[in-house]
Amino acid sequence: MKQVVKTISKKDFSSFVNSLIKDGMYEVVGVIAKGKRYVFDTLSSADQLQLHYDVTILPPKKYFLPQYEQLLKFSLEKPFEAKPASDDTQRIIIGVHPYDIIALEQTDHHYLDEQQDTFYKKRRENTVIIGTDIQNVSERSFAGSMKTNVTDTGFDLLLTDIGTSYAVTIGSEKGTKLLKKYATVKDASPADLKKVEKIRQTVLKKYKQNVKVDKKDWSALLVANYQHAIWEEHADVCLECSSCTMVCPTCFCYDVKDDVSLNLKDGTRVRTWDGCMLKEFTKVGSGEVFREDIKERYRHRFFRKGNYLPERYGFVACVGCGRCGSACLPDIADPCNLINELAHFSSSKNTGRYFIRGETDVLEKGIIHVPRSATIKKITQFNETDSFFEIELDDKKPLGHKPGQFVEISVFGFGEAPFGISSPPGDNPAFEIMVRQVGNVTKKLCLMKPGDKVGVRGPLGNGFDVASFEGKTLLFTSGGTGMVPMRSLINHVLDPRQREKFKEVIILYGAKRPKEITFMDDVDKWKKVPNVQCELTVDRCDPSECWGGCTGLITTLFPKIQADKLDSKNTIAVVIGPPVMYKFVIKCLQTLGIPDENIYVSLERRMKCGVAKCGHCQINGVYVCKEGPVFNYGQLKELPEAFE
Amino acid sequence: MKTKPRVAVFDFADCEGCELQIANLEEEILDLISFVDVVSFREVMKEHSDDYDIAIVEGSIMRPIDEERLRKIRTHAKILIALGACATIGGVNKIRNQWMPEDVKKEVYGDADLKGNKLFDVFLTKALNEVVPVDYYIHGCPIDRDEFKSVITAIALGKKPEIPRYPVCVECKKQENICQFELGNFCLGPITRAGCKAICPTNNSPCEGCRGLIKKAETECVKEVLERYNLTYEDVRRRCTMYNYGRKECSYDE
Q1: What is the signed CA dihedral for A47, A48, A49, A50, rounded to 10 degrees?
Q2: What confidence score (pLDDT) does residue B251 get?
Q3: What is each CA distance from A533 to A97, A513, A556, A574, B176, in whole angstroms?
Q4: Residue B12 has pLDDT above 60, yes or no
C-alpha cells in the first residue's frame, strides 16, 4: 500500500508537540535523555525530545503493560466486592523506533488474541504512536539483520529526519486527524521521499552487530540443538537476575499479587513483570519447581523467542534492539551472539516439535481478570491437609465445565489459586474442588466457613473430549490428588444417562497412605456399577491404620486388570497423578499394548492467569492452561519438558 | 469483639532508624493501631508491658546480656519479627567481627578497667536468628516502609509474607535506572535480595547488600562479571564487609 507522506519543518514540529502538550487532552510522552542514556518519559516541552537517540533503557511496553499495574480493587469488609481498575489516559508516544513498533504488534498477537486482555486493549486504543526512523544505531542492536530497522505498519505517524524538516509517513486515520488538528504540513516531494529512502539505507550500514542466520531459520536451528552443550556453558555464568527479560520489548510474562491496605479494609490486585529466568517463575503451591536448572531456564528464553512463539504466531519474538545484550553483565543474553554461535551447527527439518496446537473456549467477555462471586456451600475435611469444598456461583448458573477443566479461586487479600474441578458436568450451579493446604490461598480457604464468599474464574483449560471415548473400554489410573479431576470424568461416564455409551471401565486408584484415599464413598458406588473394575493401593500402611486393600505403588495394580476385558487397541487410558507417576504408569500401559494416541494425561503446572498470558505454566512452547491440562500422550511425548 | 494482638517493639545494637521508619508512617499509624495494640515501643512511648503477642526486634546481639534479654523476649512472644539489617543479618555490627572482641575493646577503651562490667562484656556480633528462632524478616538498612506494611498486614491476615527471593536487578530494571556497572560503579545488586525497589541505584548509589545475599559471591557467574569489570573476589569481600561480613547467602526462609 502506498502511504501518504507529508513534511513538516522542525520548527513547526516543535510547535506541533508543544500544542499537543498545551492542549492537555493527551499525556505526551517522548524520548528524553537520562544521563548518557535515553528513556521514554512525559514531556513538558518539545525541547526535551531527543529523536536522534540510539535506544531507550526500557521499551515503550511500560505504557501498555506497566511495571506495576492495578487490575482490581477489592474490599475485605464486604462479603464480595471486586471492581476492575480503569485507566482512561489518552497518550501520545513520540519517537518509537521501528523495532519497538514491531514488538508492540507482536504483543498484540498475544494480548489481543481470542482471549483479549481488556486492560491492554484499552491502553492500545487510547495511545497514538508517533514513530521515528532510526538515525543512530546502538552498540548492541542487530535490527538491520532482523529486518526490524524499518516498518510500514504499527504507527499512526512516522517521522524521518531529512535535514531541516521531518518527513511524516501517515499510518492511520488517527494520525491524519492529529496532523489536521495540530500541525502545519506540506505534501512530500519526490526528492523528500528519496531522502527518506537514502537515510534508511545509510543507517542500515551502521550496524556493527549482524545475525548470520535468517530469522525464519532460527526455529530449525534451535530445535536441532536443543541438547547442545552451549546452554549449560552459558548458563554456568548466568546471574539469574532476569535483567534480559525485564528490558525486552517482546517479553510479556507477568505475576499477580494482592496488596492489602494498612487499614485491612481494602486492597488491590496488582500485575507486575515477571521473568522466566527467575527460579520462582514456575514454582507451584506444593513447592515443586519446573525448569529448576538455570540451564533449562536459559534455554527456555531463547526457545520462546526462536521456536515457541514463531510456531504459535509465525514471528520470531526478537526484534534485535540489543537491550538484553547491554543489560546482561556476563554478556550471555544477546540472541545475536547465541544464534551466530549456533550457526556453525546443523539445522533440523522438523521445527514444530515443541508445540501442540489446541484451543479452549473463551471466557465470557470482560471476565479475564475479574472473578465472579460465589458462595462456599459445604466443607468436608478429609484429613489434616485436605478438605473438599462445594461452591456455588451466586448467579446460580451452572459452571458449564467439562471433566478435566479447572477454576481459579480468589480469596481477596490472599490471591488466587488453580483447582481441578472434581464434580461431573451438569445443571447444578454448585461444583466441587479439593483444597490441599500448601500456600496462602489454600490455608485461608480451609479457615473459611460455609456462607463465605470467594471469587471464581473459569472453567479454564481444555478438559476431556468425552465424546471421543464413546464405544471404548476406559482405563483410569490416578494417584493421590490426581483423583480429584479424575472423579469428575469417572462420575460423568458412570452416570446412568451416559454409561451405555462406554464399554468396560477399569479404575486404578493409589495414594501414599490410607487416609489419602479420599474418595472412598465414590469408590463404593463405582464398585456397584456393572462392568466396572476398581482396584486400590497405598504406598505404605502403618499397623495402626485400617486398610484392607493392596499395598505397593500404583503399578502393582496393573497385573490385576482382567486382561480378557481389555481390547488394547480399543481402550482409552487416562492417567492423572503426581509428576513422578507418569513415566512408570505409561510404561505399564504400553506393555498392555495401548497405543500412545489412546493415552490421555492431565498435567499440573503453575497455572496463574488461566488464559495463556502470564507464561508460568509453559511446557516448552505449550500453555498448559490453554492447550491443556489434558494432553494426548502421543503428542505430548514430543515435549522434553513434559515429564522431566 | 476479638481482642487485638499486642505488639512490642524492642532494640539492641542499632541506630533505631528502622523503628523510626515505623514512626515515620505518621498518620498511617492510626490504621496500624486499629488492628494491633502497641504495648511497648521505647522510641515513641513511655508505657511498657511484658504481655505481648508479637515482638518486633531491631538490632544485633553483641553481649551475653543481650542474648539473655532476647531469649526472654522470645519466651513472651508468639511471633518474633526481625526488623532491619542489624537484626536480620547482623548488618554493620558484624564489621566488628573482623577482629576479636578483646582487641576491639582494647582499641576503643584502651586500658580502662572494665573487668566484671557486664555492659562491656562483648562477644562476636550475632543476628537474631543465631540466638533464637525468628518467624519473619523485614530486611533492609533501613527497612522499606511499604514492605513493613505488607509484612504486618500479611501477619494480621494470617498469611505468609511474600519476601522476594530474586535480586535487586529485577526492581532496578523496572525503575529504568542506568546500570551502576555501566556508570563505572561496583554494585551488589545482582546478588542481593530485592524488595527495596532498588532505592540506592535509583538514587545514584550502588547497592551495598543490606537485604542479604541470595547468591554466593564465590560462583562462576560472579567471577565472570568481576573479570569483565576488572574486579577481584577481594573487592567483593571488601564490599560485602559493610553488611554481610562472614555471611554466606541467606537461607531460603530468611
Answers
A1: 110
A2: 67
A3: 65, 21, 15, 15, 62
A4: yes
Nearest by CB to A241, which of B159, B165, B170? B170
Tell me the fold of B6-157: Rossmann fold (3.40.50)
Q: Is the pLDDT of residue A545 over 90?
A: no
Q: Per-domain residue ranges for chain B?
A: 6-157, 168-244
Length of chain B equals 254
Fill in the amino acid letter for A548: G
Q: At what angle do helices A118-125 and A98-111 cross, to 10 degrees?
A: 140
In angstroms, the separation between the Cα of residue A437 and the nearest Cα of chain B is 12
Residue among A35, A278, A440 minimizing CB distance to B178: A35
CA A297/CA A291 separation, integer angstroms:
6
Fold classification of A372-460 (topology level): Elongation Factor Tu (Ef-tu); domain 3 (2.40.30)
Which parts of A183-288 fold into alpha helices (H)? 190-204, 218-224, 230-235, 243-246
Residue extent(s) of CATH 3.40.50.80 domains in chain A:
466-602
- What is the model's pTM? 0.94
Question: Which regions of chain A carry the CATH code 2.40.30.10?
Answer: 372-460
Cβ-contact A577, A479 below 8 angstroms = yes
Q: Which residues of B touch A331 (CB under 8 A)?
A: 228
Which ranges of B135-250 does DSSP label H, i.e. alpha helix?
145-157, 168-174, 199-202, 220-228, 233-244
Question: What's the CATH class of domain A466-602?
Answer: alpha beta
CA distance B212 to B204: 20
Query: Do the Cβ atoms of A447 and B35 come within 8 Å?
Result: no
- In this complex, do A239 and B153 lie within 8 Å of one another by their Cβ atoms? no
B26 contacts chain A (CB < 8 A)? no
Q: What dihedral angle (degrees, nearest 10) is formed by the CA atoms of B218, B220, B223, B224?
A: -160
- Nearest-Cα residue of chain A relative to residue B172: A243
Nearest-Cα distance to chain A for B250, in Å, is: 15
Contact A39, B176 (CB under 8 A): yes
Which element (helix H / strand E) includes A13?
helix A10-23
Element (DSSP H or E) covering residue A123: helix A118-125
Q: Find, among A136, A224, A128, the residue nearest to A177 by Cα.
A: A128
pLDDT tens, A450-462?
Answer: 999 999 999 999 9
Nearest Cα residue to A136 out of A164, A168, A104, A97: A97
